[in-house]
Structures are given as C-alpha cells and as structure tokens.
Amino acid sequence: MLKIGWASCDFTPTRPALIQGQMYVRVGRSARDPLTATAWAIEDVVFVSCDVAMVNDKLRQAILDRLPAEVPKHNVILSATHTHDSLVFFDNVYAHPDGDVMTASECLAWAGERIAGAIATAWRDRQPRQIGRAFGHAVVGHNRYAIYSDETGAMYGKTNRPDFHHIGGYEDHSVDMLFTWEPDGRLAGVTLAIPCPSQVEEHLLEFSADYWHEVRAELQRRFGKDLFVVGWCAPAGDQSPHFLLYGREEEEMRQRRGVTERQEIALRIADAVERALACTKPTGETPVFRHVGRELQLPRFSISQKDVSWSQAQYDKWIAEGGDPTSWWPIRLREVIDTANGLVKPAPVTARIHVLRIGTVGIATNPFELFLDYSLCIKARSPAAQTVLTQLTDGSCLYLPSERAVAAGSYGAAAVVCPVGPAGGRQLVEETLKTLNELFEEK
After folding, report:
1. What ranges do the domains of the chain cover?
2. DSSP state of 321
3. What's the predicted TM-score (pTM) here?
4. The sheet that has 187-194: what strands, in order across it?
5. DSSP string covering 134-198
6. Residue 442 in this model has a pLDDT that exceeds 80
7. pLDDT value at residue 135
8. What separation in angstroms does the CA of 175 have from each of 83, 135, 136?
9. How many CA atoms lie less than 13 Å away from 394 in the CB half-sphere?
10. d(CA 272, CA 283)
11. pLDDT at 283
C-alpha cells in the first residue's frame, strides 16, 4: 500500500467578487453551489483540484506561501477544473467596479489560505491505503469547431449553414479513474479525468463549480457522503459541453427525464464510475511510485500577417464599441501586433510539467488548454497500461492548438490566446513521452 491522504475545502467567497471567464465584467454576489478544492496526497506528492478557471502563478504562489514547512512545495501539483464562474486572481483582467467588491489580492489571500489548509490536512492524513485504476466512457465534451467548405473554422459555428462541411476534430469521451480504499475495503476517494471544461453555464452572475458540483453530489449519494472526489480537466482545448449538433434532441430527452444538463453529465460520469467499481477491487499491493517534475522551454506561436490583420481588426472594433482598453482582451491583441512589428521580443514559454508512474499507470500534466491531437498522441504512444493526462495544471499558458486548428483559424487557435503553437505542441508531446518511457524503463 502507499501512503495516501485526503482533504477538501470550500473557498466560496462571502463578499462580492469579480468572476473570471469572459471578456466582460461580471460580479458575483452569491453562489449557485460551492467552489471546492480537493487535495489528494500520495507519498511525497499532493495533487489539488480547484474550482477555478486557471491556476496562474500568483494563485500558485499564494497557496505555496501559506503551506507549513513539512509539505514539499515543489511536489504540490495544482489543477483547474476550468469553470468560468470562479474568482479573479490577478489584476488587469477587468476594470474593478466601485463598491464592496473583493480585489484580486483579497481573492488570492482568501482562496490561498483555505486551499493551503486542505493541502496540509491531506499531507498529515497520509496513511497506508490501497489504490486501483479503471477506465470507462461518458459523453461529456464535444468538439466546438465548425469547419466550412472554404476550410475556415468558427468556434461554436452554425452547422445549419449551407456551407457547413464537418466538425473540426475528434471527441474524447474517456473517463480515467483512480480509486483509493481504506485498509478495510471502504472506498475513500476517487480521481477522475474528464476531457471537458466545466462550462455548461459559463455566463452566470454567481459563483459555481458547474457540472463538477453535480458529479461530487451524485458520487457521494451513491458511495457515501464522505467520499473525496478529485476532478481533473483532461486535455480539452478544442472541447466543450456545448452542442454543435444534437442540442435540440438532447434537450428534449433531458426534459423527458426531468434533469438539467449538468445533472445529465453527472449521471453519465457516475454510471461510468459505478460500472468500473463493479469489476475493480483493491489488491493490497504496493505499486511502484515515481515522480519527475520538469520545466520545458517551448517556442512561441509563429505570428502570421493574417494574425496581425485579424488582431488589429478586433482591437479597432473593441475600441470603437467603447470597450475598456485596459482589460485582458485588447491587451492581448496589442501584444500580437507589437510582437509582429518587433516592438516586443517575447522569450520562449516556460511550461512546467509533472510525470508520474503509479504501478502500471502513467500520469502527465501540462499547463495549457491542450488540443486533443496532442493528448491522443501521448496516450497512443505511452508505455503505461493506462495514461492519465491533466491540463491547466501548475500554470496558465492558455491554448495550445493543433496544426489543423491553426489552419482553420478562430478563437482558441489564433495568436492572441496561443503563446505556443504547433511546433511547441509537438515538443511537449515528445518530452512527455520521453519522461514516461524513462519512468517505465526503471525497475
């Protein structure tokens, strides 16, 4: 058995605060459901799943600064579920409104203290527990790009247009599962990797964990109210819970069943977990455990004249419509233009990754919103019997699009939100696989 500990915390604010996730200002004054962080300590590593849009360096540092000395900070691995209804943790994202609204610094202190407390509790809770793995499927995410007959693409593009040609890429409905049991056989916790951001309701004026709240509630209803659930957003840069096709049919069936879209997702995931548990039992063995953390230097996105023209047009439109020039969107647009004109010379992007071996399971993280073309290459070529991947982990490097996505264009595959392009994506794949192979070659 391995030394494993669990803990969770609620970091829902009790004061109004800005909400992260869109191009416009939203202030949350209440919560639809709790914002949760769940910590899973295993040997000398602590994984933490947080209901936030992204784990930027400021949030990461705010958490690490509050940890007790006994916890190895370099082995704390923080992941975002990528809800678009959580707190803003850094300045210059949106103009701060007047009145009693928490600042970014206040949000950092509020969440940092609570998440650090959960990490410390999980660390101290470590004791011999059993671990097992399983694999299943649940339809949650869908490719969010429509491609037209002229080979251009559009995020959430209309599919009933006469020139609609095809959907932009693959969809991954896999569910990678890791279970933890107490020595007496009781299920203690489950770690789930779902290739879809938690963005069913991404325009709320209240705080929400989105579908992960329903997933936790449903799993706790089936397996016990004390069950811990780590929710990982597996690579899903081109995925979304929104439908380009079948939206009308899905809505009709949900109405027949009397469930919301979030509840439907939770039922699908919980069914996959229940099916897997029916044939997955603890063995009591002590699996091989190895962990490597690395920093990669990845080349910047290659900015084309098309990117410059598009960015300039978007910037001019934003300003003409009275948009705030100090918010994140026009700032990013100006960076593209200035970089192309030689006014800014950005350095290569530093990407922090973690690669682990737990018995026959490989785990690999990345800080991007990673398109499926890359994650599927890693999974297909991995030496592990099962490979679990997480994105938006230990950093916030925005999108990393595939070659075909860049060729088609649209938001998520343009320089404005892509510090790294396909050349860096291929390097990330190869470096991740190299590290996995090294871990599995060792006896």
Report:
1. 2-124, 301-340
2. T
3. 0.96
4. 76-80, 45-50, 36-42, 2-10, 127-137, 174-181, 187-194, 228-233
5. EEEE----EE-EEEETTS-EEET--SSSTTEEEESS----EEEEEEEE-TTS-EEEEEEEESS-S
6. no
7. 98
8. 19, 6, 5
9. 22
10. 21
11. 84
